[in-house]
Write a structure and sequence with these properties.
The complex is a heterodimer of chains A (about 725) and B (about 575).
Chain A (H helix, E strand, L loop, with lengths): L2 H28 L5 H31 L8 E11 L2 E9 L1 H24 L6 H20 L3 H19 L6 H34 L12 H12 L3 H18 L8 H6 L4 H9 L4 H8 L1 H5 L2 H22 L5 H21 L3 H28 L17 H15 L2 E2 L3 E2 L1 H15 L10 H28 L14 H8 L6 H7 L8 H8 L20 H22 L3 H6 L21 H20 L15 H8 L4 H46 L7 H30 L1
Antiparallel strand pairs in A: 1-2, 3-4
Helix pairs in contact in A: 1-2, 1-4, 2-3, 2-4, 3-4, 3-10, 3-15, 3-22, 4-5, 5-6, 6-8, 8-11, 8-13, 10-15, 11-15, 13-14, 13-18, 14-15, 14-17, 14-18, 15-16, 15-17, 15-22, 16-18, 16-22, 17-18, 17-22, 18-24
Chain B lengths: L7 H17 L6 H25 L8 E9 L4 E7 L1 H20 L7 H20 L3 H10 L1 H11 L4 H34 L6 H10 L9 H16 L8 H8 L2 H26 L1 H27 L4 H21 L3 H32 L15 H15 L5 H18 L8 H25 L16 H19 L2 H19 L40 H4 L4 E3 L15 E3 L7
Antiparallel strand pairs in B: 1-2, 3-4
Helix pairs in contact in B: 1-2, 1-4, 2-3, 2-4, 3-4, 3-11, 3-14, 3-19, 4-5, 4-6, 5-7, 6-7, 7-9, 7-10, 9-11, 10-13, 11-13, 11-14, 11-19, 12-13, 12-17, 13-14, 13-16, 13-17, 14-15, 14-16, 14-18, 14-19, 15-17, 15-18, 16-17, 16-18
Classes of the chains: A mainly alpha (about 725), B mainly alpha (about 575).
Chain lengths: ~725, ~575
């Protein structure tokens, strides 16, 4: 590629940063508080445009990249020196290769649709520019993450998106639960980052100490690091395992794998589906990107790969089960995201890295669609998120309903075998097929990869089932269940206007009607805004959302339907990411179609059975809120609903246990021991001073004199002793 | 830039003192004039220190712009000042933070003249510490800095000001007594070694580097080392010598806290770099496990205790213990990366913790309380303040893109490298545990942010708060600029210190005969610009103790000259040639 193209890729990064600066510095000024609509339109446009232009530029660069022969498709674009000390250079360089460009297209493409949608969804928000400040910064961080040519730059983006998610989750900061969710997200991510940082250090230490020359001390740059790592780790699988697992801890944090998934559901409970979505479609995939970048290390360590596959499989199953216990539409989607990420990690764990990325791509389409659709439903239902209040919405929200239905088919993995399948079908088939076809991660002869594949297949059936539950309860059935909610009493409204902190979790289960005001409304009233969401009650009539919100739905529905099919043609996606004779050394070839198992029929059967089971169980609707805890399945529902107690256990262990430990450190050690010794020494000296009362002329002078005398004594002794030694010599 | 033909270092050091003396002759009731003159002098000092920075050459580790006058010739004590890569940024940091805190002291309304006199005197004392090359001169400034701070806390402080001031004074004074003993020992031993007394650091270092300074009394080296180390550990402060810090911070007036966190603590880490590494090469290597343990405990313990503080300032004070733990962690790794990171983190801590104290001071002037229980939800009330505070907090968290990241990352990496090759008796537990401090930093800082800025604004007194004023935004904004500058283009800060850091490290870890020595800047006023080639580094080809600390000793991209000749006289024998840059660095 020539320098022209280099320039282009830099602009892809610069544009969102410019957008961020514009929003941050001009946002408030552009919006006239008296007539905010016009200013918001201008700022909204200024927020969408940079991302959209970046997308167009990204397409141009990708086309140019695709024109190169496959072994030349990795171009490093240096921008400036970042860290440059003796023995360590971390320049700010961008890498243009199939992996980074795939992610750039997803980020800017889906990102601009989200921005467009958000201009509608957030139209009444007072802090409109603040929201877009965070969104643009998020896109910029995400681009640094995928485009940076070294792991330290990846880490900038990694923590950058963590920051943005912290800010977006806590966007409506008046509500303490939001802030707690934000803190939780940041802190749990930091635990992952701890592993990632140690992984980076270990790479530098290993490369440095094995005398593998790394050109120009660029120890963490992919182009120099990976070949050196291959050589350095060739005879030390233990080190490869260590590096791989440390990196995987980082990936677990960002990609919400068990046990570090804890932050994601809480983040989804945060204020906007838009921010929820931006996590689901882009941010959480960073872990998969990291594994793809560093796949060589994982491939060298069957143990680490097996752990990746098993953690992925367990997460896929666990989160799918938890999804059955959720009644909040966004939370179902949150756990579904965790579960789908598990699938991606199965793919990476069994060595089929391309299938993990394939699922990242298709998942970006249909999960974005699901979240945007749920946002439309929530908007139409007066910001009530409880599915027990929905029903038969297909009548009122046709566009939302049928686009979401496409996404439902895609995530469930519906196909007509050998003819056509929705997007999710192809990627899931690739993952499960690769898992079942290979012996790759087998530890001590146990084919853990295959086991992960079978667990994944079961989780796929569960996916189809809980998505049927969601779709059926929301859009179909005979009942319009919100009609049975009594007219909301004014008392409760006043309650909120006073700005009482409202804990969603408590309310969701405690309210006798299964009805609760979302905290968004509480926040809105807190802002003192005139905007008033009218409450969801029997007289409510849902209305289809505005065009800026449904246009993205239609675009995404198109890709959810045919995206997988189109990318699967002639193994296009696979050959694009990992060409047979590409730049990156791939150690083993991974088959994607098992010889002895008909994976196509298995996937078909899993999806079909899941859907049938879902219809059988949920066609009658969920039990009403009064009998929620009484029916036959209620123990499971409750147990699954609070994540089998895992979240509570972790929170109480870390928060309460941590507070106890910290209090002990402070009150016990700091005040109780150390300070007591210090003050005791002081009192002792004072007492000594009291004995020799003529010295007691004031604190400072007395102490100073004491010390001087004591010091002189010690000094004299030292002189004497040293002299003895010198004399002896 | 060419060196000036006047004593620039002394000018920078004593300009504030001249201002202080001038202020003493003004009537105490001319408050406006006093404030203006004080601010003018601190600003002039800042400008002069920037000029000093421009005259400074980062390509040599030798002392520059040196000045040398006899003081007590009989005892080998002289007025000898100079700057090198380790001190230059601390000098600029000092002058910068003093301008900021003097500007903030607009809020001080009682005994303004005395206050300003003390501030200016304090600045001279702090600058003197960083420029002194004579141990007795260093000690004088080191102790002299306690007195103005003692009065600043004791007169303008909070409720328990007397207790805090006395504790601060005695605690740090007690530590430095040991240091004085150690200094006298060194001077006396130099007499045994060379036949005459000298308290001149380069003299003693040259003697140490020759390898025969400690001969015969090797058992004394660790003791003398610890007499210095105790003083600096107290000053840093490191666990378990830290309990004076929270009390001093909480009771100190805002400007005092800024200076205390920003500069006074750095005297401890600077002392390690200036004394402990070059003068005790054999002792320090043996003491690394103890020192690193203290650093790691400080990181975790400081963070834990910070998390449960009900008082805003106390939280930041304990966070200083954790952050200074990272500085020590980097320095005591004795790797080039770690030392660079630790030195960078010193500056970062000065800026970001200084800014935190400044911003707490801004709101304290409005609400007169520092208890978290009094705050909550003030983000809506003060959006600009909240945004600036968020940035400063994130720098403290060590978010990439801010300066905090660069320092922590390099310091941690250095510690990791040393532990990975099991140098100095370290093992992997050190970096793994220390790394967890980064998680804890997020815990206590985000929790702090939540308690102050998020949630409903229920306290009626907070509903009257207005956002900060333009001059206050400018003050904090200038620090925010530095935060991003350090995070996005750290070379500005790293490059000038690199040669000195590398030489200091070699003085500590290289075997006898391969330790670099400072050139004697014996001219009355040295024209620092003419060093040229003479300042190139002595480079060793192997590390001491058989450790393979690969990158710091023999970076793969550097060609090494043959091993240099033995002895003190071998001053600039080796040469570093960087093949990519094509010149000495």
């Amino acid at each position: 590629m020539n320098s022209n193209a280099d320039f282009t890729i830099a602009w892809v990064l610069i544009l969102p940063i410019l957008g961020f600066l514009i929003q941050a510095f001009l946002g408030k000024r552009m919006i006239d508080p008296a007539a905010p609509a016009a200013g918001r339109r201008v700022m909204g446009t200024l927020a969408v445009l940079p991302i959209a232009i970046a997308f167009v530029l990204g397409v141009l660069v990708t086309i140019r990249l695709a024109g190169l022969p496959s072994y030349e498709r990795s171009v490093v674009v240096p921008l400036f020196e970042w860290i440059d000390i003796l023995g360590l250079r971390l320049p700010f360089e961008l890498i243009v290769d199939p992996l980074s460009m795939t992610m750039v297209l997803i980020i800017t493409g889906i990102g601009s649709l989200i921005h467009l949608y958000a201009t509608g969804y957030m139209a009444d928000e007072r802090d409109y520019p603040r929201f877009f400040t965070y969104l643009n910064l998020f896109i910029a961080s995400m681009l640094i993450l995928v485009l940076g040519n070294n792991l330290a730059l990846l880490f900038i983006g990694w923590e950058g998106v963590g920051l943005c998610s912290y800010l977006l989750i806590g966007f409506w900061y008046k509500d303490i639960p939001n802030c707690k969710a934000a803190n939780k997200a940041f802190i749990v991510n930091r635990i992952g980052d701890w592993g990632l940082t140690l992984g980076l250090f270990l790479i530098v230490a290993v490369l440095g100490s094995t005398n593998q020359g790394v050109e120009g001390s660029r120890y963490l740059s992919y182009d120099t690091m990976i070949p050196a790592l291959v050589k350095a780790l060739a005879h030390s699988p233990g080190l490869a395992t260590a590096i791989a697992l440390l990196l995987f801890i980082g990936a677990c944090g960002k990609s919400a794998q068990f046990p570090l998934y804890l932050w994601l559901p809480d983040a989804m409970a945060g204020p906007t589906p838009v921010s929820a979505l931006i996590h689901a479609a882009t941010m959480v995939t960073s872990g998969v990107v990291l594994l793809n970048r560093m796949h060589v290390v994982f491939e060298m360590s069957p143990v680490a790969s097996a752990i990746v596959a098993c953690v992925g499989a367990f997460t896929a199953l666990f989160a799918a089960l938890v999804a059955f216990g959720q009644v909040d539409i966004k939370k179902v989607l949150a756990y579904s995201t965790v579960s789908q990420l598990g699938f991606m990690f199965i793919g990476c764990g069994v060595g089929a890295y391309w299938s993990g990325m394939f699922h990242v791509t298709t998942h970006a389409f249909f999960k974005a669609l699901l979240f945007l659709g749920s946002g439309a439903v929530i908007t139409a239902m007066a910001h009530n998120q409880d599915m027990r209040n929905y029903g038969r919405l297909s009548k009122y929200l046709p566009i939302t309903c049928w686009t979401m239905f496409v996404a439902y088919l895609a995530i469930a993995g519906i196909s007509i075998p050998y003819v056509f399948g929705f997007a999710g079908f192809y990627s899931k088939e690739a993952i499960l097929g690769s898992a079942l076809a290979n012996q790759f991660p087998s530890v001590n002869g146990v084919p853990l990869g295959q086991w992960a594949g079978w667990v994944g297949l079961f989780a796929a059936a569960l996916t189809a089932m809980y998505m049927t539950r969601l779709t059926w309860l929301t859009f179909f059935g005979k009942e319009e269940r919100w009609r049975s909610i009594p007219v909301s009493d004014e008392h409760e409204h006043e309650h909120h206007a006073l700005g009482e902190v409202h804990d969603e979790h408590v309310v969701a289960h405690a309210d006798p009607y299964g009805f609760y005001l979302s905290h968004e409304e509480a926040a809105a009233t807190e802002h003192g805004e005139a905007e008033h969401h009218h409450a969801l009650d029997a007289s409510h009539t849902p209305k289809e959302v505005m065009p800026s919100m449904y246009v993205p739905l239609i675009v995404l529905a198109f890709f959810s339907a045919v995206g997988g099919w189109a990318l699967e043609r002639n193994e296009m996606f696979r050959n694009w990411l990992y060409p047979p004779h590409g730049m990156l050394p791939v150690l083993g070839d991974v088959k994607s179609v098992p010889s002895n198992v008909p994976i196509v029929w298995l996937s078909f059967a899993a999806a079909g059975l899941g859907i049938i089971a879902g219809i059988v169980v949920y066609s009658k609707g969920l039990p009403s809120a009064e009998s929620w805890d009484l029916r036959k399945w209620s123990p499971f529902r409750r147990w699954a609903g609070n994540q089998f107690g895992f979240d509570a256990a972790m929170v109480s262990a870390s928060v309460e246990g941590g507070a106890e430990l910290a209090n002990f450190a402070w009150k016990g050690v700091d005040i109780g021991i150390i300070d007591r010794i210090v003050n005791g020494a002081g009192w002792f000296a004072e007492g000594l001073g009291g004995l020799v009362s003529f010295l007691q002329t004031g604190y400072i002078r007395m102490y100073a004199l004491m010390m001087l005398l004591g010091g002189a004594g010690i000094l004299g002794w030292m002189f004497y002793a040293a002299h003895q030694v010198a004399g002896a010599r | 830039m060419m060196a000036p033909h006047f004593p620039l270092v002394s000018l920078v050091t004593f300009l504030p003192l001249i201002g202080a003396i001038l202020l003493m002759f003004l009537p105490a009731d001319k408050v406006r004039a006093i404030r203006g003159i004080a601010l003018g002098f601190t600003f002039a000092t800042f400008v002069a220190s920037i000029y000093l920075l421009l005259c400074f050459h980062g390509d040599t580790f030798h002392m520059q712009l040196a000045e040398k006058y006899p003081w007590i010739p009989k005892w080998g004590i002289g007025y000898r000042v100079a700057v090198d890569g380790i001190s230059i940024w601390l000098i600029v940091l000092t002058t910068f933070l003093t301008v900021i805190s003097t500007a903030f002291s607009y809020y001080v309304s009682s005994r303004v003249r005395d206050y300003m006199v003390l501030m200016l005197a304090l600045e001279t004392a702090m600058l003197g510490v960083f420029v002194s090359l004579d141990m007795i001169l260093f000690y004088t400034f080191f102790e002299f800095s306690l007195i103005p701070m003692y009065f600043l806390i004791g007169i303008w402080g909070g409720e328990r000001k007397n207790y805090a001031a006395i504790k601060f004074f005695i605690y740090t004074f007690a530590g430095s007594i040991f240091m004085l003993i150690g200094m006298i020992f060194l001077g006396w031993q130099y007499h045994n070694f060379a036949g005459h007394y000298s308290f001149y650091i380069p003299d003693i270092q040259a003697a140490v580097a020759s390898g025969s300074f400690w001969t015969g009394i090797t058992q004394w080296e660790p003791l003398v080392f610890w007499s210095f180390a105790i003083a600096f550990l107290i000053k840093c402060p490191a666990f378990p010598f830290h309990t004076w810090l929270p009390d001093a911070h909480v009771e100190a007036p805002t400007a005092g806290s800024v200076i205390l966190a920003g500069v006074l603590l750095k005297m401890g880490t600077y002392g390690f770099l200036r004394f402990c590494l070059p003068l005790f090469p054999d002792a320090i290597q043996a003491q690394v496990p103890i020192l690193m343990t203290l650093a790691v405990i400080g990181i975790i313990y400081g963070a834990l205790v910070a998390a449960v503080q009900p008082d805003w300032k106390k939280l930041v004070a304990y966070s200083s213990v954790a952050h200074m733990g990272f500085v020590l962690f980097g320095i005591f790794s004795l790797t080039h990366t770690g030392l660079m990171g630790g030195s960078m983190q010193q500056l970062n801590h000065g800026i970001s913790t200084g800014a935190l104290f400044l911003m707490i001071g801004l709101i304290y002037e409005r609400r007169h309380t520092r208890l978290f229980s009094e705050y909550g939800g003030i983000k809506a009330q003060m959006p600009i303040y909240a945004a600036l505070f968020l940035i400063v907090m994130l720098s403290s968290v060590g978010l990439p893109g801010t300066n905090g990241f660069i320092g922590e990352f390099l310091a941690m990496m250095g510690g990791f490298e040393a532990s990975y090759v099991r140098a100095w008796g370290l093992n992997m537990a050190y970096p793994v545990v220390a790394g967890f401090g980064v998680v804890l930093a997020a815990v206590y800082l985000l929790y702090m942010f939540q308690r102050v800025f998020y949630g409903p604004n229920t306290n009626p007194e907070n509903r009257l708060l207005k956002d900060i004023k333009p001059w206050e935004i400018a003050m904090v904004g200038s620090m925010v600029v530095l935060i991003f500058w350090g995070g996005l283009y750290p070379s500005t800060f790293l490059k000038p210190m690199e040669a000195s850091i590398q030489a200091t490290r070699m003085m500590a870890v290289n075997p006898v005969g391969q330790r670099p020595v400072w050139e004697d800047p014996s001219l009355e006023i040295d024209t620092g610009g003419d060093h040229g080639d003479a300042g190139a580094l002595v480079q060793s080809s192997s590390d001491s103790g058989g450790h393979v600390l690969y990158r710091q000793v023999a970076p793969p991209d550097l060609h090494l000259s043959p091993a240099p000749a033995q002895g003190v006289a071998a001053k600039h024998v080796g040469r570093l040639v960087a093949d990519k840059a094509g010149g000495p660095r």
